[in-house]
Amino acid sequence: MAVRSKSSSAWLNEHVNDHYVHLAQKEGYRARAAYKLLEINAKDNLLKSGMVVADLGSAPGSWSQVAAKLVGKQGKVFALDILPMASIEGVDFIQGDFRENDVLAAFELLLGQRQLDLVICDMAPNMSGNQLTDQARSFYLAELALEFVQNHLKESGDFLVKVFQGSGLTEFQKAMKAQFTQVQIRKPKASRDRSNEIYLLGRHKR
Q1: Concatenated DSSP letters for 130-165?
Q2: Please, is 106 exposed, middle or buried when counting C-beta atoms within 10 Å of its C-beta (0-12, 13-18, 19+)?
Q3: CA–CA separation, 199 and 189 (whole Å)
Q4: How do the pLDDT tens digits run along the chain, 206 residues long?
Q5: Is the preceding peptide bond at 188 cis, omega within 30 degrees of 0?
Q6: How far is CA 27 from CA 31, 99, 182, 198, in A?
Q7: Which of 56, 62, 168, 183 shows its CA 20 to 30 Å from the CA of 40?
């Protein structure tokens, strides 16, 4: 029988006893990450009825669930992820690698000529365990998302993106400040304490 490492046993124990995991199961969300978006939205009122939203890095779909519920039948959510995602009412999904031009082109085709009110991005690279490599990969994805925002987010629209504290953060914040009138840091309670993830919120695209 395989013996679990201490770290994986600790993760399993944390997961089993996680308040947000239980809450997600009870309330029908696909992942505990739903509560990160719900908490940020409660503070910043990002998602409103009738909005058109893009969810980058959407699988398994908890952020899309939250977004679809809050934009309602008058709104629309477009989602993309490299992993498969089961369908959600009110969400159009494309599976593919956001880094590839043909996948991006297919996603843009799905959007049609729509300008987005909000882009939410919870993407993270496959973690290698090498902090420098993972950090660089993470900011590369965030930079691609910011480029997408530049082309598809309407003037005065908002952008919420996950990043990791450390090398590259200051530069990325500076790049966001060039595009948005305000850039705020959010660390929702649903983020695990040991995680160095934070969310940057760009308000009102210039």
Answers
A1: -HHHHHHHHHHHHHHHHHHHHHHEEEEEEEEEEEES
A2: middle
A3: 12
A4: 455 555 555 545 555 557 888 888 888 899 999 999 999 999 999 999 999 999 999 999 999 999 999 999 999 999 999 999 999 999 999 999 999 999 999 999 999 989 999 999 999 888 777 888 888 899 999 999 999 999 999 999 999 999 999 889 999 999 999 999 999 999 999 887 777 899 999 999 99
A5: no
A6: 10, 33, 33, 24
A7: 168
* Separation CA 18–CA 87 (nearest Å): 26
Strands 116-121 and 91-95: unpaired
162 assigned to active site: yes
Catalytic pick among 36, 76, 162, 205: 162
Provide the token pair at 101: 């031009």
Rounded Cα distance, 174 and 172, in Å: 5
Distance, CA of 102 to CA of 97 (rounded, Å): 9
Residue with tokens 């908890």: 62
Burial class of residue 51 in the structure, from the number of CB atoms within 10 Å of its CB (0-12 exposed, 13-18 middle, 19+ buried): buried
Quote the CA–CA distance of 155 and 87 in Å, as a whole number: 30
